[in-house]
# Entry
Amino acid sequence: MSTGLIIAIIVVALILLALLFFIPRMKRQAELKKRERELHHRREAVATEHREVADTRAREAEQAERQARMAQKEAERQRAEAELHQERATMHERGDADHELIDPDERDRFAGTSADPDGTMAQQPRSEFEEGREVGHEEADGRFMRDGRTDDARTTDRPGSRRA
# Structure
């Protein structure tokens, strides 16, 4: 045999030994990388799931907070109404709101009572509405127009109307 052939056989044998030694090690490293990738994917999946749950719960919490604020405002409104009614009750107990209990047509009947100790309730002047003022009859006369002109003057100022 020639020396070149012997060297070639030795080199091939060394390469085969190296491959036999490194192949299991490379397989282990490949499996380790595969497990690491799988673990990384699992981590990402679980983290994504937790983020989705966290977002959902945050939205639900915001909605619950809005509802709680609305309920708080409603409770405050009801409390204010209760206080208003309490104040009205106190006014009626003290007799400070008797004028609300007596209709205008009953003023004479209750004159001189604790609701009107000096008797002036029956003598109060009545408003124009109470006197039976009909809405609109002054306007028809032109007395309440903004520019001070009567209705007749306005009709003659319109385009297409004749002036006398």
User: Anything to note?
Assistant: The helical segments are 3-94, 107-110, 137-141, 151-157. Residues 30 and 76 are 68 Å apart (CA to CA). The radius of gyration is 50 Å.
